Amino acid sequence: MHLREYTALFFLLLSVIFVFIWIIGLINPSFILRWDNPAKRTRKRVTMYSLLAIVVTFALFVIIVPKTSALEEVYAKLDSNDDYDVIGTFIYKAILHIDAEVTSVIDGDTFRIKMEDGETDKVRLLLIDTPEIGQHPEPYGQKAREYANELLQNQKVHLEFDKSERDQYGRLLAYAYVGDKMINELLLEKGFARVAVFPPDIEFENEFKAIEKKARETKLGIWSIENYVTDRGCDENAASEASQ
Questions:
Q1: Is 41 a catalytic residue?
Q2: Among 16, 51, 106, 230, which residue carries the largest CB count within 10 Å?
Q3: Residue of 73, 132, 203, 207 with catalytic role
Q4: Annotation says 132 is catalytic
Q5: C-alpha 128, offset from chain centre
Q6: Does the pLDDT value for residue 139 go beyond 90?
Q7: Pair 58, 15: CB distance under 8 Å
Q8: Of residues 41, 124, 194, 232, which has the active-site annotation?
Q9: What's the pLDDT at 36?
Q10: Is 171 marked active-site?
Q11: How is 7-45 classified by DSSP, letter by letter?
Q12: Smallest Cα–Cα separation from 189: which of 123, 125, 128, 105?
């Protein structure tokens, strides 16, 4: 269950407790209204206090319980249809998507979003890895960021998921679209990214490798650097893992 369901359950139990106290008070008002004047320990007062407690509980429920997030709505839809296949008890293919606005671009393959409900999150583009721009900047890292910023900043983005929702750092893992253009592919086409394969998220692996091959053959971006993979000191998967 999500936070919303746990919070709702708490207030439901609280309401049940107040109803139970109300019933006891109707049977024996003095047992409940111990602090009041004996002459005022009446069923009418028990009813008044009990209804007040229930109304306050309901008001707190409306104020405190968070709205359903975009991701929770997605899972609710999944629970009600057959847009996924199941082996035993494990979902291995799901059709998930989110629409959001890009608020900032961190580097070539990572950016922040704000969803329609106001919730914010961080997104890591699937199946690609761009050069680092941190303490030890790599060639074309800044150019990759600038290009991603040009494509994404303040844009409405459509995110589609593979088989994983998030990585170990809590970032959403997605294929990002602006209009009908996939940002993952555009970065590969310009030579600002390389293919980074992390099963089970491999839906576009063959397509991405074909795009990377063209960029490599025409020596675009990072592929204009001789022995680019060797210069980074690791193979493709290890380099991608480090960037995660």
A1: no
A2: 106
A3: 132
A4: yes
A5: 19
A6: yes
A7: yes
A8: 124
A9: 60
A10: yes
A11: HHHHHHHHHHHHHHHHHHHHH-HHHH-TTS-GGG--HHH
A12: 128
Q: Beta partners for 158?
A: 99, 177
Residue type, position 12, single letter = L
Question: 110-115 and 156-160: which strand pairing?
Answer: unpaired
The mean pLDDT value for 116-133 works out to: 95
Of the listed ranges 129-133, 181-185, 219-223, 236-240, the one predicted with least confidence:
236-240
For the chain, the 3-state helix, strand and coil shares in percent, each to the nearest 5, are 45, 20, 30
pLDDT band at 227; cut points 50, 70, 90 = confident
How far apart are alpha carbons 59 and 223 in whole angstroms?
61
For the chain, how many helices (H) and strands (E)?
9, 10
Would you call 128 helix, strand, or coil by DSSP?
strand
Q: Pairing mode, if any, of strands 84-87 and 90-94?
A: antiparallel
Which residue blocks in the chain are alpha helix, DSSP H? 3-27, 29-32, 43-64, 70-79, 141-152, 183-189, 205-217, 228-232, 236-243
pLDDT of 63-101, one tens digit each?
Answer: 776 555 555 555 555 455 444 443 333 333 444 789 999
Mean pLDDT, all residues of the chain: 80
Residue with tokens 């003095």: 30
Question: The tokens of 28 are what?
Answer: 């024996």
Q: Which amino acid is at 210?
A: A
